[in-house]
Design brief:
Elements (H helix, E strand, L loop, with lengths): L2 E2 L9 H8 L1 H12 L4 H18 L5 H35 L2 H12 L3 H19 L4 H13 L3 H11 L7 H14 L3 H8 L3 H17 L1 H6 L1 H21 L5 H19 L9 H10 L13 H22 L1 H7 L8 H12 L1 E2 L10 E2 L5 E2 L5 E2 L4 H16 L3 H14 L1 H20 L1 H9 L3 H20 L2 H19 L3 H15 L4 H10 L6 H27 L8
Parallel strand pairs: 1-3
Antiparallel strand pairs: 2-5, 3-4
Helix pairs in contact: 1-22, 2-3, 2-27, 3-4, 3-21, 4-7, 4-19, 4-20, 4-21, 4-26, 5-16, 6-7, 6-8, 6-9, 6-11, 6-13, 6-14, 7-8, 7-26, 8-11, 8-26, 8-27, 9-10, 9-24, 10-13, 10-25, 11-13, 13-14, 16-19, 17-18, 21-26, 22-23, 23-24, 23-25, 23-27, 24-25, 25-27
């Protein structure tokens, strides 16, 4: 039982095939934005619609469609769902032991202004986690931190998703850009340079945009000096590292520079008025007490360090997990001679499982006539979620919680996240069915037909669509990177610009990806409210990808000198 992908399966017509391929995506938009279904219902029904379209319209055997969905569901649980479970677990441990109150007060000691807290946590700290781990960890942890500080959960999740736009292309130690070198043959350094000449424009703009969303244009101007420090320090570091160092470190270094630059700046500059949310102001007026709502207590440096140590340990372990050589050992692929890494490699090999997907492996034939391998990739030790779990074990000893309460808390988190994990599994299954059936490529080929004049503008939309479907800038680059290169070459556009635009445009799709929406809602306790968050982010996603489209269009014409 084999299946040969046919991108013009419907009436032997690309446009008609693309319209049909849009059905599952349009259904998902309708389910969340209009019908406002709960996330797991929208995810499961979208998966069902995708399977039906794949089988009936794209002639994919039902068995292969179902097994492709199972492959995606497994990937949705490990590594993605595992990251969410362990991230929320770590946060809950700090809350249960009272350490988060100290974290909260330490942030308030820098600033009580909600606008500036959003810049520190959602933008800078979130970008650091994106650079170190990627997947769902940045949004999950930074959103949970904002909720703990007193932010409305929906706003916290939405702001973190939007803030995550700036670092996504260089996430997880530069994997999205490193990965696309393979299918395109374009050196990763060249793509890194080009992305580093597109995203800094967004990186300067995003902090201002965040505050406008939060507080309005006038109140954003009140903290413009801090916004400029945050955005310019991030963007400048992003440009220099991506152009002169490589794709691995732009996020980590940009985030650290931005975080420390803003924290130091706030030691010498304060806004004239402290911004708080309306509900907080009303409560403060009723209680006739000075904000913040919880009395700020003085804590020693040792207490503050202890409270933050779970997240410092998390950062250190995730950073180690992301080092390429160690990553190879953790997944059982290290071939060097270092004794320690060889020992880790043995354990990593024992805990890495890649069984073939029954009936699916090598039974899908792409248009080049090559069979496509399909395996369940279960890298237990190498998963970022396992790194976070190790951080929770170390945290157990730091915060002094008993093993019994540690286990009870873990059980509470598992119960709390059962529906979000089901949502994630179903939407990743939807992505896999869409890819395996050829629907994703059909949509990509249609966008590529927009021609020499319009394609430079629509090129980022291809990456945006890819990230919406797959939930990953890496996957979108692998899916559409070579198509971008081929199309660009045929119309006289620089292929480096087109491939970079795929990655840069993809960053705006992250905030509306079903995976990202489910992750963010799970982190802030809004399971079942995915439709509200989707409605919050969709307009910002379309606006930001349009900006990337304009930048790419200009770089293809009047700003062509910017192409390396």
């Amino acid at each position: 039982m084999s299946f040969t992908q046919n991108f013009t399966a419907v009436g032997d017509n690309l446009a008609l095939s693309a319209i049909v391929a849009l059905i599952p995506i349009l259904y998902f938009f309708w389910a969340l934005a209009i019908k406002r279904m709960k996330g797991h219902i929208a995810g499961l029904t979208t998966l069902a619609v995708a399977i039906i379209v794949a089988v009936i319209a794209f002639k994919m055997p039902a068995g292969l469609a179902l097994m492709s969905a199972s492959q995606g569901a497994v990937y949705g649980i490990l590594p993605i769902g595992w990251i969410i479970i362990t991230s929320v677990f770590l946060y809950k441990l700090t809350v249960k032991t009272g350490q988060f109150d100290i974290i909260r007060n330490s942030v308030l000691s820098i600033t009580e202004d909600r606008r500036l807290q959003a810049l520190l946590v959602a933008f800078s700290f979130g970008a650091f986690l994106e650079g170190a781990a990627g997947f769902g960890a940045p949004v999950a942890i930074s959103a949970a931190l904002l909720v703990g500080l007193g932010f409305n959960p929906l706003y916290a999740a939405g702001l973190c998703l939007i803030a995550n736009t700036a670092p996504v292309a260089f996430g997880a130690i530069g994997i999205p850009i490193i990965a696309v070198e393979g299918p395109t043959g374009i050196p990763a350094m060249e793509i890194s340079k080009m992305v580093g000449r597109q995203l800094p424009f967004l990186s300067v703009f995003i902090p201002f945009y965040l505050i406008v969303i939060m507080a309005g244009f006038k109140r954003a101007l009140e903290v413009l000096p801090a916004i400029l420090v945050s955005g310019i320090s991030f963007a400048a570091t992003q440009y220099f590292t991506s152009n002169f160092v490589g794709p691995e470190l732009p996020d980590i270094l940009s985030a650290l520079v931005s975080l420390f630059a803003l924290a130091i700046f706030l030691k010498f500059w304060k806004p004239k008025t402290i911004f708080r949310f309306e509900a907080e102001q009303e409560l403060a007026a009723t209680a006739a007490v000075k904000m913040p709502l919880k009395t700020k207590q003085a804590h020693t440096g040792a207490q503050i360090f202890k409270a933050w140590s779970p997240f410092l340990i998390l950062t250190a372990i995730i950073s180690v997990w992301g080092i390429p050589t160690i990553k190879l050992a953790l997944t059982g692929h290290y071939e060097g001679t270092n004794a320690v890494l060889k020992a880790i490699n043995s354990l990593g090999h024992a805990l890495t499982f890649v069984p073939e997907v029954p009936f699916l492996n090598n039974n899908i034939i792409n248009t080049a006539g090559d069979p496509v391998a399909a395996v369940y990739k279960l890298e237990v030790l190498g998963a970022a979620g396992t790194a976070i779990l190790i951080a929770t074990i170390i945290t157990k000893f730091i915060v002094g919680i008993s093993w019994e309460n540690w286990v009870v808390t873990f059980g509470e988190v598992m119960n709390e996240l059962k529906f979000p994990v089901l949502t994630i599994g179903s939407v990743v299954g939807f992505a896999y069915v869409t890819n395996a059936s050829g629907m994703s490529t059909t949509l990509g080929m249609t966008l590529a037909k927009t021609g020499a004049v319009l394609f430079p503008f629509f090129s980022p939309f291809l990456g945006w669509l890819g990230v919406f479907i797959t939930g990953s800038d890496t996957s979108a680059n692998l899916l559409f990177g070579n198509l971008q290169k081929i199309t660009a070459t045929s119309i006289g556009m620089d292929p480096v610009l087109a491939v970079a635009a795929n990655s840069s445009g993809g960053v705006a799709g992250k905030m509306i990806s079903p995976q990202s929406i489910a992750v963010a809602c799970a982190a802030v306790g809004l399971a079942g409210k995915e439709s509200d968050l989707f409605r919050f982010t969709i307009k910002h996603s379309l606006f930001l990808v349009t900006l990337v489209g304009i930048i790419t269009f200009l770089q293809n014409s009047v700003l062509s000198w910017m192409i390396p």
